[in-house]
Amino acid sequence: MNFTKDNEKLVQASLYPEKILVKSWYFGEGLPGSLPEAWLRESVYERLLIAAESLSDGMRLIIWDGWRSFELQKFLFDTLYSRYKAKGFDDDKAYELTKTFVAVPSKDPENVSGHLTGGSIDLTLADKYGHYLPMGGSFDETEEHSATNYYEHSDLSIQINVIALENRRTLVRVMTEAGFTNNPNEWWHYDYGNRRWAERSGSGEIFYGYTQPPFKWH
């Protein structure tokens, strides 16, 4: 892979409320290093606009998280790791399970955490009033049904499963057509331009390093 350091700026994700809303999940939870706004690399935001515009009338995107501080990334990783340890898993198993849902906090350019680059985004679908559409699971659930394709193999005689399946398919379609890749373990997580995106898309170029925010966040 080739690394590019283009000094691309971070921009607010809430600049187009007709189609994109921001509900900063971690800020609402009062977590350390969180922000009231979602910030994304400019090229990521541009592709997000493409995705939003391709939604049918009456549908919008809600952004839960974009750029993260190292402090927040570490808090999320350590908290989930501690939960697995409390369930009786040994150190190695707890570490591997945690990595399934939270990237290891790192500023190392060779292995920087996706959200720290401003190239990862957590989001869902909403109706025209901003109400969440059923997705068959909540944000940040560390459960089997968090896998993006979970409802592809579920009992479709249950109507709510059909609705969740169609909504997940819609989110996958608009995001992937706009150039994003999905984390298959998390229906809400998409990437553009970072290492995970490069691995899944086959691209030879990725964002370089930890993106410094153009604002004071603590």
CATH topology: Muramoyl-pentapeptide Carboxypeptidase, domain 2
Q: What is the radius of gyration?
A: 17 Å
What is the tally of beta strands? Answer: 9
Structural class: alpha/beta
Order of helices and strands: EEEHEHEHHEHEEHE
Percent of residues in helical segments?
25-40%
Report the total helices: 6
Number of domains: 1
State the assembly state of the protein chains. Answer: single chain
Per CATH, the architecture is: 2-Layer Sandwich
Please list the strands of the largest sheet in the order they lie side by side: 3-5-6-8-7
Task: Give the end-to-end Cα distance, rounded to a whole number of Å.
Answer: 34 Å
How much beta, percentage-wise? 15-25%
Unreliable runs, pLDDT <50, ≥5 residues?
A: none
What number is the mean pLDDT?
A: 91
CATH class assignment: Alpha Beta
Global outline? globular
